[in-house]
Amino acid sequence: MRTIETDVLVIGGGATGTGCARDLAMRGIRAILVEKGDLTHGTTGRYHGLLHSGGRYVTKDPQSATECARENVVLRKIMPHCLEDTSGFFVTTPWDDPAYGDVFVKNCRLTGVPVQELSVQEMLRREPMLNPQISRVFEVMDGSADSFLATRSTALSAEEYGAQIWTYHHVVDLVREGDRVTGAVVEDLRNGERIGILCAYVLNAAGAWAGKIAAMAGVTVTVLPGKGTMVAMNHRMVNTVVNRCKLPDDGDIIVPIHTVAVIGTTDVHVPDPDVYGIEPDEIQFMLAEGDKLLPGFSQYRALRAWAGVRPLYKDRDVVNDRDIPRTFKLLDHAERDGVEGMLSIVGGKWTTYRLMAEESVDALAKRLGNTRPCRTAEEPLPLPPTEHQTTFRPPIRTTGPGARVAAEVEALQRAPLYWLGKHLSEVEREQSFADLICECEMASRSRVLAAIDAGAKNLDDIRRDVRMGMGPCQGGWCIYRTTALLFERRGEDGLSQANSNDALLHFLQARWKGLVPVLWGDQLRQARLDELIYVGVLGADRLRSIAEQGGGLVTDNPAVATEYVKA
Amino acid sequence: MDHIELSLTQSLDHCIKCNICTSACPVAAVTDAFPGPKYVGPQAQRFRHEGQPVPDASVDYCSGCRVCNQVCPTGVKIAELNARARAQIVAERGLPFRNWLVARAGLVGRMSCGPHAPLLNFGLRLAPARWAVEKVIGIHRKAPLPASSTYTFRAWFRKHRAPTTARRQVAFFHGCATNFYEPHVGKAAIAVLEHNGFEVLLPKQQCCGLPLISNGDFKAATSAHEANVQALVSYARQGIPIVGTSTSCTLTLKEEAPEILALHSEDVQAVAAGTYDIFEFLRSLAERGELKTDFRPIERHLPYHQPCQYRAHRLGSPAMDVLSLIPGLVLEESHAECCGIAGTYGLKQEKYQIGMDVGAKLFAMVKRSGSDLALCDSETCRWQITHGTGVASKHPIEILAEAYGLEL
Ligand SMILES: Cc1cc2nc3c(=O)[nH]c(=O)nc-3n(C[C@H](O)[C@H](O)[C@H](O)COP(=O)(O)OP(=O)(O)OC[C@H]3O[C@@H](n4cnc5c(N)ncnc54)[C@H](O)[C@@H]3O)c2cc1C
Ligand code: SF4
Ligand code: SF4
Ligand code: SF4
């Protein structure tokens, strides 16, 4: 077994782990990050897409609220290209306690969450589709965030500073010598090779899987996986994040992100973060809740459903699951369990990932005798090669709580904030409309090729980079095109036609999973056409016999398979 | 939001990306500048956001011919989405003077119509003048501009003596072209209607607003439509049919203006429901056995092009149906999607060639027929056909008047 040595081994390529790797590298600490799937394979890639203002937590979880409010501003400065300044409303519908509005405002003030009440008339002017029976509206600094792009950009920065990012490397064991964790054994899922990693510290950032990782070192960390399901609708009927003004509950937020509007989420305890399904009643419930915010919501075209698992950390002294705080926690296993060489960072939100990384790396740096300060809040992230170097700047927000920050972000004169028309405008500028691979999401050939060249290990990786296959047709036209490009590009590196076939089947299956829960109306019609294309025309149902895993790709590996139990 | 409005704005959700519209679009077939209906319609729409800058420009190459709407298997209102997207561009970037001008058919007509028309027409036939117009205004030097008439249709109508035997009434919507360029089409229509026992009333009216809509000037289009509705609604309410010879004008009153401009008042709906294309109206008379059939035979074989704006009425082929009653007359249908002019589209310097290429199929068919006359219901299409083939063109109502042996 090959063995490699480093200072810190970060486990988990979600927002948190990747943020840690960047922070470590920026402080000059050697780090290797291992992730069993692609970056964002876990919860980070399956979340709701909301850059929290903090409003959601002002009453039940004030600390989280304050953290979100601070990080919201920081992220706008360091990753404008990943964020859309949608702004957000908290609205009191006829189903909500009208008294909560005043409590909400008071608690916003207490927790430092900028808020401003609007007239219902003004709300309807800005979002005419919202329920006219809404009685009060509060505007906050919510935004929407592309976690794929953010994590990719963070990893790129980490690599620029010398960190190593190993995706498709599965931690199969931790090495414990006496009271000390000294390293890990990882398996390269592309070829099954096992590699030993020796390190001074292991940083367990495995999210909902953190308990499984800790168990490898004989330490108990109770992470309760709370599954949340979301439904993406075919287009944005609102351009502002809309939250119900009440204590956090299921199906109470609509997030406009990229070309879709996403309603979410549910919260169902599941025994294992790798085994869960999407239930029909969850979908039905959320669409019905959507109708309360936006009459007719359930009649729009649903594109797809998916689920992620919340990494809720249950402290040893908490008896009742409902009292679990939503803030993050850094566990020092030396203090807590008498096991040296390992820290776990658990809980939290996407919005606070950078802060989580900062605290974790502060603790590690101290132990390693490194005194360099954290700079991740000041230095902006680089753009990955799949991104357009856009020069166009949409006008900045001039009203609402976000106006001041928008001006501040703009003043930095770095990459502009993301805006909905971005990819269309770039395609128009380049006149590349005849060269689109994914037409629905406007992914041009050059961007798809950039994603392939960046090291995609299957088609799903390309999807995360350029949104290929995420539009209305869910891959009907782009899957076979992308497969052909992959083969063209990697054929010389040993990727065979059979490997390409396997990539195609794998991705078709992955897309199908998310379609099954919403198969009615337009999306059923779409699925029928897609079936005609893949089965009727291309004979994909007979491809299995000439499909083969390999060629540097990772497809049906059990380590990265998510079981949808019933769906 | 009103259900008609929802059925338009939400129709992008029905797109299953089948590309049938893209294969059928006559513009996409002839130019790379236009990405096609699927792209500029339901696809691009998902990237548009009223509060943000307009991200695209290629939608301006849509001619508005509505072929895409007709072929779409799921009912996406592509042409309407495109018209609205163009209006957003205009609202943001302003209307170029050229488009402002060509969108005002009535204004241009009023200025050029009259005793000075021959002089003006002569001037506009001179190459240097057209070269200057192209350079300064952007109207292609070869584009088919109509010759202005020395008198207006309305002026003629005021002096016209109607028979006193009429039993029923219709209101006539003449549109700009008949009033300023082709009064003879209106005269033929009046003659046919009167011959069938109608008293023809002439309501006050403005341009139907279609050129304003298709050039994205929704503000002006809205006031035009509102004025027309105000002038026409009393007729509609009394059950007096509003009949027009311009298929695009009647389509605008019936459907385009209400849908695209989101005007859905009861008055608007009443006018929409009470408006008929002239052959739609005559065909319904024929179906009830009320159309006079004292036709003289016309032993001719003529090519006929049903304009795209007429097909958009979804009525089948009323003109073919009625003209088939004329003994001896044989019409050969063009089966061409579009003549390419699409109102003011093919006049524009950057779109002229596209328009000619779109029309090529139709021109070839007309030339192949060997006829010296082609029939078509829409005025701009007639001018385009004549421009593309050198063959004279007439409105089918003129042939019908001839078959009745009516003096014009
Ligand atoms: C339904 C839902 C909606 C949410 N919406 C929002 C939102 O809108 N806004 C917001 O701010 N937050 C949201 N959150 C919270 C947020 O998504 C998570 O807190 C955050 O993404 C967690 O990131 P992470 O990096 O800690 O964990 P993860 O992203 O789960 O990363 C852990 C990684 O560890 C990897 N891993 C596990 N085991 C191994 C192993 N043995 N070897 C190698 N790698 C391994 C996994 O593959 C995974 O990629 C949401 C959460 C859920 C569940
Ligand atoms: S209206 Fe005509 S030109 Fe425009 S997209 Fe449709 S088919 Fe093409
Ligand atoms: S024909 Fe209709 S469904 Fe097909 S791509 Fe065009 S708009 Fe979409
Ligand atoms: S010009 Fe004629 S055929 Fe063409 S666009 Fe008009 S009505 Fe259609």
TrEMBL record, chain A:
The keyword Flavoprotein applies. Residues 374-400 are annotated as: Disordered. Its EC number is 1.1.5.3. Coiled coil: none annotated. Residues 7-354 form the FAD dependent oxidoreductase domain. It catalyses: a quinone + sn-glycerol 3-phosphate = dihydroxyacetone phosphate + a quinol. PANTHER family: ANAEROBIC GLYCEROL-3-PHOSPHATE DEHYDROGENASE SUBUNIT A, GLYCEROL-3-PHOSPHATE DEHYDROGENASE. This is Glycerol-3-phosphate dehydrogenase. It comes from Candidatus Chloroploca asiatica.
UniProtKB/TrEMBL annotation, chain B:
One of its GO terms (molecular function) is oxidoreductase activity. The keyword Iron-sulfur applies. It comes from the Bacteria. Gene3D superfamilies: Alpha-helical ferredoxin (1.10.1060.10). GO terms for cellular component: glycerol-3-phosphate dehydrogenase (FAD) complex; membrane. InterPro entries: 4Fe4S_Fe-S-bd (IPR017896), 4Fe4S_Fe_S_CS (IPR017900), Cys_rich_dom (IPR004017), G3P_DH_GlpC_su (IPR017753), Helical_ferredxn (IPR009051). Pfam families: CCG, Fer4_8. Keywords: 4Fe-4S, Iron, Iron-sulfur, Metal-binding, Repeat. One of its GO terms (biological process) is anaerobic respiration. PROSITE patterns: 4FE4S_FER_1, 4FE4S_FER_2. PANTHER family: ANAEROBIC GLYCEROL-3-PHOSPHATE DEHYDROGENASE SUBUNIT C, GLYCOLATE OXIDASE IRON-SULFUR SUBUNIT. This is sn-glycerol-3-phosphate dehydrogenase subunit C.
